[in-house]
Automatic annotation (TrEMBL):
Record lineage: Bacteria, Pseudomonadati, Pseudomonadota, Betaproteobacteria, Burkholderiales
Record's keyword terms, sorted: Lyase
Documented EC number(s): 4.2.1.17
Superkingdom of origin: Bacteria
Listed InterPro entries: ClpP/crotonase-like_dom_sf (IPR029045), Enoyl-CoA_hyd/isom_CS (IPR018376), Enoyl-CoA_hydra/iso (IPR001753), Enoyl-CoA_hydra_C (IPR014748)
Organism: Paraburkholderia panacisoli
Protein name: Enoyl-CoA hydratase
Amino acid sequence: MNEPILAHRDGAVQVLSFNNPAARNALTPEVYKALPAALDDAQRDAGVGAIVLTGVGGAFCAGGDLNRLAQRRAMTPPERRAGIEGLHDLIRAIRDCSKPVIAAVEGPAAGAGLSIALACDMLFAAPNASFSVAYVKVGLSPDGGATAFLSGFVSRQLLTEFCLTGRPVTGERMHTLGVVNRLVERGNVLVEAIAMAQSLATGPERAIARIKTLCRHAGENTLEAQLDLEARYMTESLGDDEAAEGISAFFEKRPADFSTLRRTPAVHSQ
């Protein structure tokens, strides 16, 4: 059997690829274990500054394997729930990784595949990439955080339309809605995502981890809670060697060099 996740390094960027092209990279229990493990490896590697998540064979991820999902009908509710939690643990692993994770989407990102793409910190896509909350077409309801992620970008009415129709939405429209960071010519999405990741990988590791956590909580926290979190992280940052290097570089009119300040394991988002 092929490895469910392919991993290769491009400088300081770890590229992780769904590897089930015959099924448009549909998800399996093996993926639920392999992707969090690969993210953890990247997390612990001081030589990795950022991660790109993509799929082989012209698709990002078509979501759950319907053959496997059909088998869950015969399971007890706790057994079904355990299968769903495998996906949700994968989503949490992306969310909790302190290093930036960029999704590079060409072809379909459907169902849980859409959830995974949205869980990433940034999303690069081709204009004709296809995003769909496809669950309703097979009599299912969304999981993987799809409704939570999309509700941060679109109105309740538009979210409801996406979920009740399951119709594909192009990368171009998702870019217009603010879901996609960069719209990239087909065939170049991975290259552009890696270029962005390379740029981020030279940044201050611990400050980036704090920024990721601030951005994740900004939409759910009250102003007071967010001010408290910002104060906590700014207090930590001011005492960090990264700030000393960054401020010195500014006054000395030179590029900051954070490479020697990287640590293993990295700071985890909370």
